[in-house]
Design a protein that fits this description.
7-stranded antiparallel sheet, alpha+beta, 7 strands
Length: about 230
């Protein structure tokens, strides 16, 4: 789960009115909080499989990518990640990536992050130039995935929560956003893990979300937690 500093950074998206500036803020956070030097982000249409570039960010450089417009089926690793709605790390080779982009961006490997909103894939982020000596861990990739899913909730107009959450439901979501495990929440609140899980399930049902990361994101976006 993301830490409180990351959530605070994401929450500041509500102060940015320009949609493109919001995207820039999200991508800059990606290089601030994660050990990567470069990230690119694209829109995606599940109707025609078309991906369109938005921006590239590398350290202090921001460049538009609106010249890129491709069928993601020509990029098997991307198509796989978007189809599964799960992050995917891949080695870039001519057999799975058009040579023109390998040469243009000097690609060797990528972490591919599908970006979802209300259960639909709306875009993808491609992250590379890892700065650590060891391999990218599953925890880093999962945290990247959560970061983009939560940030995506701020790319669209605000909408009210369907139902008001109870005090306990808000409490477990707040602690979940701080990175507490089910056991830690149960011990802190004096409840069983089953009861904590029931509160999370109830909150998810009221907010119309499909998983815990989305539940936290929607609760934050609607001001139900901070």
């Amino acid at each position: 789960m993301l830490n409180a500093r990351m959530f605070d950074y994401i929450h500041r998206l509500q102060t940015i009115e320009d949609p493109l500036k919001r995207v820039e803020w999200i991508m800059r956070g990606c290089t601030i909080f994660f050990p990567f030097k470069r990230g690119t982000i694209y829109t995606y249409s599940p109707l025609n499989y078309l991906g369109e570039g938005i921006i590239l960010i590398e350290e202090d450089i921001i460049e538009p990518l609106n010249m890129i417009k491709e069928d993601v089926r020509d990029f098997p690793p991307i198509y796989y990640a978007l189809s599964q709605k799960r992050p995917h790390q891949t080695i870039i080779e001519p057999r799975n990536w058009p040579i023109q982009y390998i040469e243009q961006f000097q690609l060797t490997s990528l972490v591919i992050i599908p970006i979802c909103y209300s259960g639909t894939v709306i875009g993808t982020a491609l992250i590379d130039r890892y700065i650590e000596e060891q391999e990218v861990t599953k925890d880093v990739i999962e945290a990247l995935y959560q970061y983009f899913q939560i940030s995506a909730q701020w790319l669209f107009p605000h909408s009210s929560a369907r139902q008001k959450l109870s005090k306990r439901e808000k409490e477990v979501l707040q602690k979940l956003s701080y990175g507490y495990s089910l056991k830690e929440m149960a011990d802190f609140m004096g409840l069983s893990e089953f009861t904590v899980r029931d509160y999370l399930t109830s909150a998810s049902r009221k907010l119309g979300t499909k998983h815990r990361t989305e539940t936290v994101a929607v609760a934050m976006r609607n001001g139900l937690i901070i």
